[in-house]
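Step 1: inspect the first sequence and its tokens.
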Amino acid sequence: MPRTIHVLNGPNLNRLGKREPEIYGRTTLAEVEALCRAAAGADSLVFRQTNYEGQLVDWIHEATDAEAAGIVINPAGLTFTSIPVLDALKMFKGPIVELHISNIHRREAIYHRSLVSTVATAVIAGLGAAGYATAVQALQGLLDAA
């Protein structure tokens, strides 16, 4: 039976391909979405991006209420600052894969403490845009093992 996976993206990820390509690469968000859809195979995929914290919280609530199978989330800058995103993720019952395009632990100290990691089932960082497909596949593996 196909499952629904939510891939949720936070602020500034709509600028992928243009924003600091030396850190985030040249792959666009549309290309990232295509990678995720290919990786999802028969599973249904909801792919979203917002620059607004409250919108991201609402989408986590939607995934929770719809009993989505799992969430892949790149909260971007909200990773390190957002208690509301953290609290919303605490309500989600399925696996959560936190994703970062860059290796946040090799960057400035402000990027080293992820609030989301405290509730994430797994964390993927530093694989570039290809990390999204890896995250979707890892989530599927977690669901298959459950």
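Step 2: inspect the second sequence and its tokens, then contrast the two.
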Amino acid sequence: METLGRLTAHLVLDLTAVSVLTFAIYYPRHRRRDLVPAYLALNVALFAVVSALAQVGEGGAALGFGLFGVLSIIRLRSDSIQHEEVAYYFTTLVLGLLCGLPHLGFAVAATLAALLLLVMYGADHPRLMARTCRTVVTLDAVHTDQRALCADLARRLGGEPCAWTVKEIDFVRDLMVVDVRFRLPEPFGRPARTTSQRTDRNRPRTITRSPAHPKPRPLSEETV
């Protein structure tokens, strides 16, 4: 009964942590619904396997670490995902691995899970280096001069190129493929209100009726 209670507490911790990671951090920022069930399924599956293997002894725990590495390799080779999604993927697996160890203290597991969530929340925050972008550009010209290439990229992207890597050059079709990291310009701020505008806003306004809608007159005895 003690083992069952400890396992239930770790399961609740794992489900809470992976739900916060998936529904409160990942999905509101990236909006990829197809990866939500993948993260949840991998986390719960790894939790179940590690919890079962931990009952065997030290060999089961070592086998759980090996299973963690095998699952990572299979998942990464089966689909092409973004680097941010790879970070969420590994965090999901680590949460399942930490919470699935029943011999690990609940307070230690909760602290490590909170640390992982805090790191992911800060590292993938939308305001962190928000102006730095990356894209792959196919140019309809081959630039041998780096200055000309930089000027062409800045004109097409509307930002300042920070670094780029030429991935492909085709002299027959006269094109080149460039992987660019660029910085967007600062957004224009709102124009400040003038003194007259602020005065007009604070001045009380008088509402006049339109001639098309005159004020109704009370009925007199002659009209009746």
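Step 3: confirm your contrast with the notes below.
The longest strand covers residues 160-170. Residues 188-214, 219-224 have pLDDT under 50 and may be disordered.
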